[in-house]
Amino acid sequence: MTLLRLTPVRTSPDKPTRRPAPPRHLADLDSAGRRSAVAALGEREFRAGQLSAHYFGRLVRDPAAMTDLPAASREKLANDLLPTLLTPVTEQACDGGATRKTLWRLHDGALVESVLMGYPDRVTVCISSQAGCGMACPFCATGQAGLTRNLSTAEIVDQVVWFAGEAARGALPGCPDRLSRVVFMGMGEPLANYNRVRDAIRRLTDPAPDGLGLSQRHITVSTVGLVPAIHRLAEEKLQVTLAVSLHAPDDELRDELVPVNQRWKVAEVLDAADAYARQTGRRVSIEYAMIRDVNDHPWRADLLGRLLSGRLAHVNLIPLNPTPGSRWDASPKDVEREFARRLRAAGVTTTVRDTRGREIDGACGQLAASAEAT
Length: 374
Ligand code: SAH
Prior knowledge:
Layout: H1 31-40, H2 47-57, H3 71-81, E1 87-94, E2 99-105, E3 111-118, E4 123-126, E5 130-132, H4 141-145, E6 147-150, H5 153-168, E7 181-184, H6 194-205, E8 219-223, H7 227-235, E9 241-245, H8 251-257, H9 266-280, E10 284-290, H10 298-308, E11 313-319, H11 333-345, E12 350-352, H12 369-373
The structure holds S-adenosyl-L-homocysteine (SAH).
């Protein structure tokens, strides 16, 4: 049963009507918060640990399977602390079943997507941090529809826990059964939903039973370059990988491709990335979607090479995934190779991203659930 906790709806004429908050969930709370929530239900506090061990450790959410809890308490605890947050609407697979995209409906009807990718040595999930996105990058499908709302911490975490359960049940043949990596590269700008994303990272990396016990180093947060938030993330002393969506080495073009560049320029973004690398010792990933005749010129490769050489950064070239209605296309392979060659000649490590999920519109920048729904 889904419990909806409706917050009072404000009706003041000058304020937009607020959406009801998502139901509170175990994954929204730290361990002290869980203990007091359990106590408030009239249960012994240690039940919080048992419930967490089911959800995070055994990936179980069905109260009937929680046999170490007294039968009388199971339903009450699960109804209150494990409400249904994500309801699968559609599931699509490609790459021989190794890539799966799920469209979820949230409690208020908002839609988000996540993508599970299995490899012989690892299982990665690409998750959403917001329904829609407010950053308006013109080549990105999510950016076209605008922002619907921030996801709650638990709505973010539950995408991972759900897929961890799928992987554990052997959903990806030929792949490990343990989900090990998370990338915040689905819908939304994670650093624009800062506190909830940070708390989600804690839940994902806290050891069981408090959390899922993933390695911080196996979590990647991708950002358009919200400079103050990058500095703030560096202060958290987390070991997560930062990816910066640069897409252009010059402000003139970046102002267009990543409109938030009008606020924080290339130099400031790279300085923030540097500060992050210095504080965490983690190499920053510079994301660069290769767009034919737009940002793929040899001189831009050389300029990017000069900007990055000597920094603790590497470049990840992403073949553009053309989105409906966009006038842009991916760069030809020979242009991409020359771009990569020039970067490497400047001493910058460069890789080309694989394009998992293209046929199911599940690759980078293709997630557009809210647009589909309207
Ligand atoms: N808002 C964050 C995370 C979401 S997108 C960010 O911008 O970093 C994850 C990556 O996919 C980003 O690097 C984004 O720029 C890139 N991307 C967006 N649209 C794309 C497209 N059509 N083709 C290839 N990459 C795209």
